[in-house]
Give the backbone structure.
Amino acid sequence: MNKLFQKYALLILVVFGLICRILFLFFNQTVLLTNDSQTYLDLAKIISSGTISGYFGGRTPGYPFLIFLLGNSTKLVVVFQMIIGILSSVIWYRILIFFKCNASVSCLVSLVFSSYLHVLSYEHAILIESINLFVVTLLIYYIIKNKILETAFCLTILVLLKPFYIFLPFVIFTYFIYNNFNWKAIFKQQLVVLILPLFVFISWSYVNFLNTGFFVSSTYFGLNKIQNCVNFIEKAPPEFDWIKTPYLQQRALHSENGLGNPMCIWFAVDNGDFEYKKMTFPQLSYEFGKCADATIKNNIGLYFKQVIFLSFKEFWNVEMVSVNSVESSYFLKNIWKFQSVFLRIFKTLFLLIIPIYIFRFIKNRLFSIELLLVLLVLATAILQALVVYGSNGRYSFPFEFIMITIVLLVIKNNFFPTKDETTFIK
Protein backbone atom coordinates (compact mmCIF):
# COMPACT_ATOMS: atom_id res chain seq x y z
CA MET A 1 0.00 0.00 0.00
CA ASN A 2 2.81 2.41 0.92
CA LYS A 3 4.54 1.72 -2.43
CA LEU A 4 1.28 2.45 -4.22
CA PHE A 5 1.02 5.85 -2.52
CA GLN A 6 4.70 6.56 -3.24
CA LYS A 7 4.16 5.88 -6.95
CA TYR A 8 0.81 7.61 -7.44
CA ALA A 9 0.70 10.17 -4.60
CA LEU A 10 0.74 13.25 -6.84
CA LEU A 11 -1.93 11.81 -9.13
CA ILE A 12 -4.11 10.91 -6.13
CA LEU A 13 -3.76 14.39 -4.63
CA VAL A 14 -4.61 16.14 -7.90
CA VAL A 15 -7.53 13.89 -8.85
CA PHE A 16 -9.15 13.76 -5.41
CA GLY A 17 -8.43 17.46 -4.90
CA LEU A 18 -10.35 18.19 -8.10
CA ILE A 19 -13.21 15.89 -7.07
CA CYS A 20 -13.55 17.63 -3.67
CA ARG A 21 -13.65 21.04 -5.33
CA ILE A 22 -16.18 19.95 -7.95
CA LEU A 23 -18.39 18.52 -5.20
CA PHE A 24 -18.13 21.80 -3.26
CA LEU A 25 -19.19 23.63 -6.44
CA PHE A 26 -22.48 21.72 -6.36
CA PHE A 27 -23.23 23.34 -3.01
CA ASN A 28 -21.81 26.78 -3.79
CA GLN A 29 -21.65 28.29 -7.27
CA THR A 30 -21.25 31.87 -6.09
CA VAL A 31 -18.15 33.95 -5.43
CA LEU A 32 -18.08 34.76 -1.72
CA LEU A 33 -17.73 38.49 -1.04
CA THR A 34 -17.19 40.18 2.31
CA ASN A 35 -16.52 43.77 3.36
CA ASP A 36 -12.80 43.08 2.98
CA SER A 37 -13.36 41.73 -0.52
CA GLN A 38 -14.58 45.08 -1.81
CA THR A 39 -11.44 46.89 -0.66
CA TYR A 40 -9.29 44.46 -2.66
CA LEU A 41 -11.50 44.83 -5.74
CA ASP A 42 -11.42 48.62 -5.45
CA LEU A 43 -7.61 48.73 -5.41
CA ALA A 44 -7.49 46.28 -8.35
CA LYS A 45 -9.62 48.70 -10.37
CA ILE A 46 -7.36 51.59 -9.39
CA ILE A 47 -4.32 49.59 -10.53
CA SER A 48 -6.16 48.90 -13.80
CA SER A 49 -6.46 52.65 -14.36
CA GLY A 50 -2.67 52.89 -14.56
CA THR A 51 -2.10 55.04 -11.48
CA ILE A 52 -2.54 54.70 -7.73
CA SER A 53 -2.25 58.41 -7.06
CA GLY A 54 -4.64 59.46 -4.30
CA TYR A 55 -5.29 55.93 -3.01
CA PHE A 56 -6.28 55.98 0.67
CA GLY A 57 -3.68 53.34 1.59
CA GLY A 58 -5.81 50.70 3.27
CA ARG A 59 -4.55 47.67 1.38
CA THR A 60 -1.16 46.58 0.11
CA PRO A 61 -1.01 45.86 -3.64
CA GLY A 62 -0.20 42.13 -3.62
CA TYR A 63 -3.67 40.55 -3.83
CA PRO A 64 -5.28 43.41 -5.83
CA PHE A 65 -2.48 43.09 -8.40
CA LEU A 66 -3.31 39.39 -8.80
CA ILE A 67 -6.98 40.33 -9.34
CA PHE A 68 -5.84 42.88 -11.95
CA LEU A 69 -3.71 40.24 -13.74
CA LEU A 70 -6.78 38.01 -13.91
CA GLY A 71 -8.77 40.74 -15.63
CA ASN A 72 -10.62 41.84 -12.49
CA SER A 73 -12.71 38.69 -12.87
CA THR A 74 -13.72 37.30 -9.49
CA LYS A 75 -14.56 33.94 -11.09
CA LEU A 76 -11.05 33.62 -12.51
CA VAL A 77 -9.65 34.50 -9.08
CA VAL A 78 -11.67 31.64 -7.56
CA VAL A 79 -10.43 29.21 -10.24
CA PHE A 80 -6.85 30.33 -9.60
CA GLN A 81 -7.30 29.83 -5.84
CA MET A 82 -8.70 26.35 -6.42
CA ILE A 83 -5.64 25.47 -8.53
CA ILE A 84 -3.15 26.71 -5.93
CA GLY A 85 -5.20 24.88 -3.28
CA ILE A 86 -4.47 21.61 -5.09
CA LEU A 87 -0.82 22.60 -5.56
CA SER A 88 -0.59 23.33 -1.84
CA SER A 89 -1.62 19.76 -1.03
CA VAL A 90 1.15 18.46 -3.31
CA ILE A 91 3.74 20.61 -1.50
CA TRP A 92 2.38 19.52 1.91
CA TYR A 93 2.95 15.92 0.82
CA ARG A 94 6.56 16.70 -0.12
CA ILE A 95 7.13 18.49 3.20
CA LEU A 96 5.84 15.50 5.19
CA ILE A 97 8.03 13.15 3.13
CA PHE A 98 11.01 15.38 3.97
CA PHE A 99 10.24 14.76 7.64
CA LYS A 100 10.31 11.00 6.90
CA CYS A 101 6.60 10.47 7.33
CA ASN A 102 5.08 7.38 5.77
CA ALA A 103 4.03 8.04 2.13
CA SER A 104 0.46 6.82 2.69
CA VAL A 105 0.09 8.92 5.86
CA SER A 106 1.59 11.97 4.12
CA CYS A 107 -0.78 11.61 1.19
CA LEU A 108 -3.82 11.04 3.38
CA VAL A 109 -3.09 13.99 5.69
CA SER A 110 -2.48 16.32 2.74
CA LEU A 111 -5.65 15.20 1.03
CA VAL A 112 -7.83 15.47 4.15
CA PHE A 113 -6.67 18.97 5.05
CA SER A 114 -7.02 20.07 1.42
CA SER A 115 -10.67 18.98 1.49
CA TYR A 116 -11.56 20.79 4.72
CA LEU A 117 -14.64 22.97 4.21
CA HIS A 118 -12.98 26.13 5.50
CA VAL A 119 -10.10 25.61 3.02
CA LEU A 120 -12.63 25.25 0.19
CA SER A 121 -14.66 28.24 1.38
CA TYR A 122 -11.62 30.52 1.41
CA GLU A 123 -10.84 29.40 -2.14
CA HIS A 124 -14.29 30.65 -3.18
CA ALA A 125 -13.86 34.00 -1.42
CA ILE A 126 -12.16 37.19 -2.57
CA LEU A 127 -9.86 37.15 0.44
CA ILE A 128 -6.11 36.68 0.85
CA GLU A 129 -6.29 33.54 3.02
CA SER A 130 -5.94 30.98 0.19
CA ILE A 131 -2.95 32.64 -1.43
CA ASN A 132 -1.43 33.27 2.01
CA LEU A 133 -1.71 29.54 2.72
CA PHE A 134 -0.07 28.69 -0.61
CA VAL A 135 2.83 31.14 -0.21
CA VAL A 136 3.45 30.10 3.43
CA THR A 137 3.49 26.46 2.27
CA LEU A 138 5.93 27.34 -0.52
CA LEU A 139 8.02 29.30 1.98
CA ILE A 140 8.39 26.29 4.29
CA TYR A 141 9.28 24.06 1.35
CA TYR A 142 12.07 26.41 0.21
CA ILE A 143 13.41 26.78 3.76
CA ILE A 144 13.77 23.02 4.22
CA LYS A 145 15.47 22.88 0.81
CA ASN A 146 17.77 25.72 1.92
CA LYS A 147 16.80 27.84 -1.11
CA ILE A 148 17.70 31.34 0.10
CA LEU A 149 16.61 33.43 -2.89
CA GLU A 150 13.30 31.59 -3.29
CA THR A 151 12.68 32.01 0.45
CA ALA A 152 13.30 35.76 0.11
CA PHE A 153 10.83 36.01 -2.78
CA CYS A 154 8.14 34.16 -0.80
CA LEU A 155 8.66 36.51 2.15
CA THR A 156 8.44 39.51 -0.18
CA ILE A 157 5.15 38.28 -1.63
CA LEU A 158 3.77 37.70 1.87
CA VAL A 159 4.63 41.28 2.90
CA LEU A 160 2.93 42.56 -0.27
CA LEU A 161 -0.12 40.48 0.60
CA LYS A 162 -0.20 41.42 4.29
CA PRO A 163 2.32 43.88 5.79
CA PHE A 164 1.77 42.26 9.19
CA TYR A 165 4.16 39.53 7.99
CA ILE A 166 7.16 41.88 8.08
CA PHE A 167 8.38 40.09 11.23
CA LEU A 168 8.78 36.75 9.40
CA PRO A 169 12.04 37.68 7.59
CA PHE A 170 13.73 38.42 10.93
CA VAL A 171 12.76 35.04 12.42
CA ILE A 172 13.88 33.15 9.32
CA PHE A 173 17.08 35.18 8.92
CA THR A 174 17.94 34.32 12.54
CA TYR A 175 17.42 30.62 11.75
CA PHE A 176 19.75 30.76 8.75
CA ILE A 177 22.61 32.61 10.45
CA TYR A 178 22.32 30.57 13.66
CA ASN A 179 22.82 27.34 11.73
CA ASN A 180 25.41 28.71 9.33
CA PHE A 181 27.13 31.77 10.79
CA ASN A 182 29.51 32.93 8.11
CA TRP A 183 30.02 36.62 7.32
CA LYS A 184 30.63 35.89 3.66
CA ALA A 185 27.44 33.81 3.39
CA ILE A 186 25.46 36.44 5.29
CA PHE A 187 26.42 39.28 2.95
CA LYS A 188 26.38 37.26 -0.28
CA GLN A 189 23.21 35.23 0.29
CA GLN A 190 21.33 35.33 3.56
CA LEU A 191 20.91 39.11 3.88
CA VAL A 192 18.56 39.07 0.89
CA VAL A 193 15.99 37.39 3.18
CA LEU A 194 15.77 40.72 5.03
CA ILE A 195 16.49 43.20 2.23
CA LEU A 196 13.78 42.27 -0.28
CA PRO A 197 10.80 42.19 2.15
CA LEU A 198 11.99 45.36 3.90
CA PHE A 199 12.42 47.12 0.55
CA VAL A 200 8.82 46.48 -0.54
CA PHE A 201 7.50 47.28 2.96
CA ILE A 202 9.28 50.64 3.05
CA SER A 203 8.48 51.38 -0.60
CA TRP A 204 4.75 50.85 -0.12
CA SER A 205 4.82 52.89 3.09
CA TYR A 206 6.42 55.70 1.09
CA VAL A 207 3.71 55.44 -1.58
CA ASN A 208 1.14 55.80 1.21
CA PHE A 209 3.07 58.81 2.52
CA LEU A 210 2.85 60.47 -0.89
CA ASN A 211 -0.87 59.71 -1.16
CA THR A 212 -2.01 60.33 2.43
CA GLY A 213 0.77 62.10 4.31
CA PHE A 214 1.24 59.11 6.64
CA PHE A 215 4.27 56.82 6.39
CA VAL A 216 2.48 53.55 7.20
CA SER A 217 2.11 50.23 5.42
CA SER A 218 -1.66 50.44 5.92
CA THR A 219 -3.87 53.31 6.99
CA TYR A 220 -6.05 50.74 8.77
CA PHE A 221 -3.35 50.46 11.44
CA GLY A 222 -4.78 53.08 13.82
CA LEU A 223 -8.27 51.64 13.50
CA ASN A 224 -6.94 48.14 14.18
CA LYS A 225 -5.14 49.36 17.29
CA ILE A 226 -8.26 50.94 18.78
CA GLN A 227 -10.15 47.67 18.30
CA ASN A 228 -8.01 46.33 21.15
CA CYS A 229 -9.56 48.99 23.41
CA VAL A 230 -13.16 47.95 22.85
CA ASN A 231 -13.65 46.63 26.39
CA PHE A 232 -12.03 49.58 28.21
CA ILE A 233 -12.52 52.50 25.84
CA GLU A 234 -14.44 54.35 28.59
CA LYS A 235 -11.05 54.93 30.20
CA ALA A 236 -9.76 56.91 27.22
CA PRO A 237 -8.41 60.43 28.06
CA PRO A 238 -10.97 63.29 27.97
CA GLU A 239 -9.44 64.82 24.83
CA PHE A 240 -10.69 61.76 22.94
CA ASP A 241 -14.31 62.00 24.11
CA TRP A 242 -15.33 62.59 20.50
CA ILE A 243 -14.08 59.05 19.75
CA LYS A 244 -15.10 57.48 23.06
CA THR A 245 -18.77 58.55 23.01
CA PRO A 246 -19.86 56.98 19.69
CA TYR A 247 -17.60 53.98 20.41
CA LEU A 248 -19.43 53.35 23.69
CA GLN A 249 -22.79 53.79 21.99
CA GLN A 250 -21.93 51.11 19.46
CA ARG A 251 -20.54 48.85 22.18
CA ALA A 252 -23.85 49.10 24.04
CA LEU A 253 -25.65 47.98 20.88
CA HIS A 254 -23.23 45.19 20.02
CA SER A 255 -22.20 43.37 23.18
CA GLU A 256 -22.43 39.71 24.10
CA ASN A 257 -21.61 38.13 27.46
CA GLY A 258 -20.36 41.48 28.69
CA LEU A 259 -17.80 41.81 25.87
CA GLY A 260 -17.91 44.39 23.12
CA ASN A 261 -17.96 43.31 19.49
CA PRO A 262 -14.49 43.89 17.98
CA MET A 263 -16.15 45.67 15.06
CA CYS A 264 -17.82 48.38 17.18
CA ILE A 265 -15.49 51.13 15.98
CA TRP A 266 -16.13 50.09 12.37
CA PHE A 267 -19.86 50.35 13.03
CA ALA A 268 -19.36 53.88 14.34
CA VAL A 269 -17.40 54.84 11.21
CA ASP A 270 -19.97 53.27 8.88
CA ASN A 271 -22.74 55.00 10.82
CA GLY A 272 -21.18 58.37 9.98
CA ASP A 273 -20.52 59.27 13.62
CA PHE A 274 -17.28 61.06 12.73
CA GLU A 275 -18.25 62.73 9.48
CA TYR A 276 -18.67 66.12 11.18
CA LYS A 277 -14.90 66.14 11.77
CA LYS A 278 -14.39 66.45 7.99
CA MET A 279 -11.36 64.14 8.15
CA THR A 280 -10.10 61.80 5.47
CA PHE A 281 -10.00 58.13 6.48
CA PRO A 282 -6.19 58.14 6.95
CA GLN A 283 -6.50 61.19 9.23
CA LEU A 284 -9.31 59.56 11.22
CA SER A 285 -7.39 56.30 11.59
CA TYR A 286 -4.34 58.26 12.77
CA GLU A 287 -6.45 59.89 15.50
CA PHE A 288 -7.80 56.46 16.46
CA GLY A 289 -4.21 55.28 16.81
CA LYS A 290 -3.34 58.22 19.08
CA CYS A 291 -6.39 57.48 21.22
CA ALA A 292 -5.46 53.78 21.40
CA ASP A 293 -1.86 54.55 22.38
CA ALA A 294 -2.93 56.90 25.20
CA THR A 295 -5.66 54.55 26.46
CA ILE A 296 -3.39 51.48 26.43
CA LYS A 297 -0.55 53.38 28.12
CA ASN A 298 -2.82 54.37 31.01
CA ASN A 299 -4.47 50.92 31.25
CA ILE A 300 -1.68 48.49 30.45
CA GLY A 301 -3.14 45.77 32.69
CA LEU A 302 -6.51 45.84 30.92
CA TYR A 303 -4.72 45.83 27.57
CA PHE A 304 -2.72 42.68 28.37
CA LYS A 305 -5.84 41.06 29.77
CA GLN A 306 -7.47 41.75 26.41
CA VAL A 307 -4.42 40.47 24.51
CA ILE A 308 -4.02 37.22 26.46
CA PHE A 309 -7.59 36.18 27.20
CA LEU A 310 -9.26 37.35 23.99
CA SER A 311 -6.97 38.10 21.03
CA PHE A 312 -4.38 35.38 21.72
CA LYS A 313 -7.04 32.87 22.72
CA GLU A 314 -9.10 33.48 19.59
CA PHE A 315 -6.06 32.89 17.38
CA TRP A 316 -6.53 29.18 18.11
CA ASN A 317 -10.13 29.20 16.90
CA VAL A 318 -11.16 27.74 13.55
CA GLU A 319 -12.93 30.15 11.20
CA MET A 320 -14.47 29.83 7.78
CA VAL A 321 -16.16 32.21 5.37
CA SER A 322 -19.91 32.30 5.86
CA VAL A 323 -21.45 30.10 3.13
CA ASN A 324 -25.25 29.98 3.01
CA SER A 325 -25.28 26.57 1.32
CA VAL A 326 -23.14 25.10 4.10
CA GLU A 327 -25.16 26.73 6.89
CA SER A 328 -28.44 25.53 5.38
CA SER A 329 -27.24 21.98 4.70
CA TYR A 330 -27.59 19.57 7.63
CA PHE A 331 -25.04 17.25 6.00
CA LEU A 332 -22.35 19.90 5.39
CA LYS A 333 -22.98 21.58 8.71
CA ASN A 334 -22.26 18.36 10.56
CA ILE A 335 -19.19 17.63 8.46
CA TRP A 336 -17.85 21.08 9.33
CA LYS A 337 -18.69 20.56 12.99
CA PHE A 338 -16.62 17.36 13.01
CA GLN A 339 -13.77 18.92 11.00
CA SER A 340 -13.57 22.01 13.21
CA VAL A 341 -13.49 19.94 16.42
CA PHE A 342 -10.77 17.71 14.98
CA LEU A 343 -8.70 20.75 13.93
CA ARG A 344 -9.17 22.40 17.34
CA ILE A 345 -7.77 19.26 18.95
CA PHE A 346 -4.65 19.51 16.78
CA LYS A 347 -4.30 23.21 17.58
CA THR A 348 -4.62 22.53 21.31
CA LEU A 349 -2.03 19.75 21.13
CA PHE A 350 0.30 22.07 19.23
CA LEU A 351 -0.10 24.73 21.91
CA LEU A 352 0.85 22.17 24.57
CA ILE A 353 3.87 21.05 22.54
CA ILE A 354 5.41 24.54 22.22
CA PRO A 355 7.13 24.47 25.66
CA ILE A 356 8.74 21.11 24.78
CA TYR A 357 10.49 22.59 21.75
CA ILE A 358 11.59 25.67 23.68
CA PHE A 359 12.96 23.49 26.50
CA ARG A 360 14.84 21.32 24.00
CA PHE A 361 16.44 24.41 22.49
CA ILE A 362 17.52 25.70 25.91
CA LYS A 363 18.96 22.28 26.71
CA ASN A 364 20.60 21.37 23.38
CA ARG A 365 21.02 24.78 21.67
CA LEU A 366 19.78 23.10 18.49
CA PHE A 367 17.76 25.40 16.23
CA SER A 368 15.99 22.75 14.17
CA ILE A 369 13.57 23.28 11.31
CA GLU A 370 10.80 22.01 13.61
CA LEU A 371 11.63 24.69 16.17
CA LEU A 372 11.55 27.31 13.41
CA LEU A 373 8.05 26.19 12.41
CA VAL A 374 6.93 26.37 16.04
CA LEU A 375 8.39 29.87 16.42
CA LEU A 376 6.73 31.10 13.22
CA VAL A 377 3.33 30.11 14.57
CA LEU A 378 4.02 31.35 18.10
CA ALA A 379 5.36 34.71 16.88
CA THR A 380 2.29 35.14 14.66
CA ALA A 381 -0.04 34.30 17.56
CA ILE A 382 1.62 36.78 19.92
CA LEU A 383 2.09 39.67 17.48
CA GLN A 384 -1.41 39.50 16.00
CA ALA A 385 -2.81 39.53 19.54
CA LEU A 386 -0.83 42.70 20.31
CA VAL A 387 -2.03 44.66 17.29
CA VAL A 388 -5.59 43.58 16.51
CA TYR A 389 -8.74 42.13 18.04
CA GLY A 390 -11.30 40.60 15.71
CA SER A 391 -11.19 37.68 13.23
CA ASN A 392 -8.05 36.47 14.99
CA GLY A 393 -8.70 32.92 13.79
CA ARG A 394 -8.04 34.05 10.21
CA TYR A 395 -4.46 34.88 11.20
CA SER A 396 -3.88 31.24 12.13
CA PHE A 397 -5.37 29.76 8.95
CA PRO A 398 -2.18 29.88 6.79
CA PHE A 399 -0.26 28.16 9.61
CA GLU A 400 -2.71 25.38 10.42
CA PHE A 401 -0.88 22.81 8.33
CA ILE A 402 2.33 23.65 10.20
CA MET A 403 0.53 22.87 13.47
CA ILE A 404 -0.73 19.57 12.08
CA THR A 405 2.78 18.68 10.86
CA ILE A 406 4.41 19.38 14.23
CA VAL A 407 1.82 17.33 16.12
CA LEU A 408 2.27 14.42 13.69
CA LEU A 409 6.05 14.61 14.07
CA VAL A 410 5.80 14.46 17.87
CA ILE A 411 3.50 11.44 17.63
CA LYS A 412 5.73 9.74 15.05
CA ASN A 413 9.00 10.37 16.89
CA ASN A 414 7.67 9.28 20.26
CA PHE A 415 5.41 6.37 19.39
CA PHE A 416 6.66 5.20 15.98
CA PRO A 417 10.38 6.12 16.00
CA THR A 418 12.87 4.76 13.49
CA LYS A 419 16.31 3.67 14.58
CA ASP A 420 18.08 6.88 13.53
CA GLU A 421 15.63 9.31 15.13
CA THR A 422 15.86 10.89 18.56
CA THR A 423 12.60 11.11 20.46
CA PHE A 424 11.42 13.49 23.16
CA ILE A 425 11.33 10.60 25.60
CA LYS A 426 15.01 9.84 25.04
User: Anything to note?
Assistant: Residues 221-315 form one domain. Residues 421-426 have pLDDT under 50 and may be disordered. The two ends are 31 Å apart (CA to CA). The first strand starts at residue 255 and ends at 256.
